[in-house]
């Protein structure tokens, strides 16, 4: 057995810790990927009775991006159980109260509803910023690819890059620059 | 009728201003024209406004005829680019310094492309990708926006109806 195959086997049988940067990522699209890692479905030894899920550390969950106007259209429902106990919270309001909640609920929904769902959710560690506690940072040995390309702001480009970029059209001769 | 009168008053005020400050005022407004002030040996003064070469003149991109798109009604159709709302270096060429989309008589686009580019400019602005090209009174930092507008969002270009 080659050295790489041997290490791959160790990684399969051990609990890996993966890092996922949620900057400009759709929580619902990335949840489809992260749920595979948390349940262990990315491994060849997966079996529903085989407890082989990995840990996933999500950073920058405050910077997640929702599609279109979903921040004001998506509603989270809660009921206290008492009469008139229903409440509806918009996604942007929930994100203001807890920047990890939209991501956590998306991953919870993406996993199959069974008895080990909450056990698998315990292996998910979400942080709103890029700061990770040292005891978690020391465990991380892998990284999950972003599911969407991260856009770059116009302020991220230098003036030379903007000026030297090819132009698609020229102004008419009598146009007043503003 | 009232509107026409108002516009006439505006035009008269403008003409008065022009007469006061000579042609220099007109030329300074037109950033694309340069005023030259020459005095001949026989005492005649020649003040001329010449068109300046556009700053983009030697940066215009063209495409080979075999790589053109199937539609050739305008240059964007010919270029056949897959423009997304995140391509801010392309979209920022179509806006003024206050973030307004340029009209079709300036951009010279076909109707479909004008609609597509205009919608994508709006998408980029809502996503806060071009927040430095905005009116002076607007929030430059997307985090300071109101309610749902402060969080990151992305758009799907297939939702543009044209």
Model description:
The complex is a heterodimer of chains A (178) and B (162). Chain A has helices at 3-13, 27-39, 70-73, 91-97, 101-110, 117-121, 134-137, 159-164; strands at residues 17-21, 55-59, 66-67, 75-79, 86-90, 124-126, 142-143. In chain A, helix 2 crosses helix 5 (101-110). Chain A contains 8 helices and 7 strands; from the N terminus they run αβαββαββαααβαβα. Chain A has a single domain (3-68, 97-164), classed as Alpha-Beta Complex (Ribosomal Protein L13p, Chain: A), CATH 3.90.1180. In chain A, the strands form 2 sheets. Chain A has a 4-stranded parallel sheet, with helices on one face. The termini of chain A are far apart. In chain B, 35% of the residues lie in helices and 10% in strands. With 162 residues, chain B is an alpha+beta fold. Chain B is flat. Chain B has helices spanning 2-29, 75-79, 88-91, 104-107, 111-126, and strands at residues 33-39, 45-51, 153-154. In chain B, strand 1 and strand 2 form a beta hairpin. Chain B has a two-stranded antiparallel sheet. Mean pLDDT of chain B is 80; it is low at 1-30. Chain B has 5 helices and 3 strands; from the N terminus they run αββααααβ. Classes of the chains: A alpha/beta (178), B alpha+beta (162). Chains A and B meet through strand 3, helix 3, helix 4 and helix 8 of A and helix 2, helix 3, helix 4 and strand 3 of B.
CA-based shape of chain B: flat
Alpha-carbon Rg of chain B, integer = 22 Å
Looking at how many chains there are and whether they match, the oligomeric state comes to heterodimer
Main β sheet profile of chain B: 2 strands, antiparallel
H/E order of the elements of chain B?
HEEHHHHE
InterPro entries (chain A): Ribosomal_uL13 (IPR005822), Ribosomal_uL13_bac-type (IPR005823), Ribosomal_uL13_sf (IPR036899)
Protein name (chain A): 39S ribosomal protein L13, mitochondrial
Keywords (chain A): Ribonucleoprotein, Ribosomal protein
GO cellular component, one term (chain A): mitochondrial large ribosomal subunit
